[in-house]
Amino acid sequence: MLLLVGIFGKTPDPGASLPDGPSTSAARQTSTTSLPPGSTSPTATTPPPVATTTTTVPPPPPPGSIPDTTVVVLNSTDTSGLASRVTEYLDGLGWQVEAPDNFLTTLEETTVYYPEGEEAAARQLAAAAPGDADTVSPAVPEVASDVLTVVLGNDAVDWVAPGEQPPPTTT
User: Fold this and answer.
1) What is the CATH number of the domain that holds 100?
2) Which of 160, 147, 150, 163 is nearest to 70 (CA)?
């Protein structure tokens, strides 16, 4: 038996008979489901949790723990001065840095390229460098093969060293 309610804008009279059968008393019976204590009704909705993103800068490594490997920072973004700011920051942490420069191809993700045998140092540097991920990769032909090379990607364009103010924007 099927009971249609509200199709024609009317609610059936509880005492009225259905066209093909007996009184609607059987159709009017409501089913109840017993829920375990502490549970909520299946029709209750809980809003989804709000996702938040935070960028944290790792604390500087303890003195003497910085590898004795030279670092060069290259900027692959359109953000002027970014490689210089990152170079100054890494120098302040104790890394041996060379003069910053530009990288010809734009990267989306900041990447630390390392020479053979320097992956551990590259991972430590990637943790200190800006960017959303700690991406490391063996050196490629576009970078020097004897130094750690940080190529800043678009994920680092808004980077500001801890305690510093963002650079002025030009419009």
Assistant:
1) 3.30.70
2) 147
Answer whether 124's CB lies under 8 Å from 96's CB: no
The pLDDT tens digits of the residues spanning 10-24 come to 444 455 444 444 444
Per DSSP, the residues of 122-136 read HHHHHHHS-SSS-EE
> From CA 77, how far away is CA 103, in angstroms rounded?
8
Cα–Cα distances in Å, from 132 out to 32, 53, 72?
51, 10, 19
Q: Dig out the tokens for 127 from the structure.
A: 């943790």
Segments forming the whole domain that contains residue 79: 70-156
Structural domain tally of the chain?
Answer: 1
